[in-house]
Amino acid sequence: SIPMADRYVVAREVLDPLPCYISYYSAMELHQMTTQPVNTVYVTVPRQRTRRTITGVEYRFVYANPRAFWGWESIWATDQERVQVSDLEKTLLDCAARPHLCGGLGEVAKGLWLRKDDLDEEQLVAYVKRLDRKAAAKRLGFLLETYSLGRPETIAALQSLVNPSYDLLDPTLRDEGPYRARWRLRINLDPEELKTVVRT
């Protein structure tokens, strides 16, 4: 099978000349935000593309409209090859917006915790405002508070984006659990479980 790093180069070559960046679960892996091996390669593209399997590896092409197609950096995937990958803050934001593309909110939580010392909070807030996905703002605010992370002004900025309707904390799980008015979230993933996730 193709070594992991080379899979990212293959993704770029397959899509060329279409711009793209490695995203979601794959970006989490590249940023050392996950302890699980990620077998599918997630790539964000500005056009609809159907998923493909190449030498046994599944490539999922996630469409982003121009309003969401930004926030990547170029990194070395191999000794010779660079690829574009969503940066740390955009990876967190994308994953909070669409947790089903990264193994659920528990994985986002773990990724946040693993890289908490490297997080640029001002950048994160600017990105959240730019993407304007209310559910993502709520989930990130809730996670930062759950882990006692985030400066007061970061929490306040995320709080200001909360809208009246409720969203699920983790949309990959069942619609159940208590409602948290502060973040307008239905807490369908036990916060204690989220705290355990980061201790293991």
What does the model show?
This protein is of the alpha/beta class. Helix content is 40%, strand content 16%. It is built from eight helices and nine strands. The chain has helices at 4-15, 24-30, 88-97, 105-114, 121-131, 134-146, 152-159, 191-199, and strands at 21-22, 41-45, 52-54, 57-63, 72-76, 82-86, 167-168, 179-180, 185-186. The strands form three sheets. It has a four-stranded mixed beta sheet with strand order 1-2-4-3. A three-stranded mixed beta sheet has the order 7-9-8. α2 (24-30) packs antiparallel against α3, α3 packs across α5 (121-131) and α3 (88-97) packs across α6. The longest helix is centred in the C-terminal third of the chain and has 13 residues, at 134-146. It starts with a helix and ends with a helix. 38% of the residues are buried.
Keywords:
about 200 residues, about 40% helix, 3-stranded mixed sheet, 8 helices, alpha/beta
Q: Outline of this structure?
A:
The protein contains eight helices and nine strands.
Q: Report the radius of gyration as a whole number of Å.
A: 17 Å
Judging from the principal axes of the Cα atoms, what is the shape?
A: globular
Q: Can you tell me the residue ranges where pLDDT is under 50 for at least 5 consecutive residues?
A: none
Q: Write down the overall mean pLDDT.
A: 95
**SSE succession:** HEHEEEEEHHHHHEEEH
Give the N-to-C terminal Cα separation: 30 Å
Assign a percent range to the helix content. 40-55%
Based on secondary structure, the structural category is alpha/beta
For the sheet with most strands, the description reads: 4 strands, mixed
Number of helices: 8
Number of strands: 9
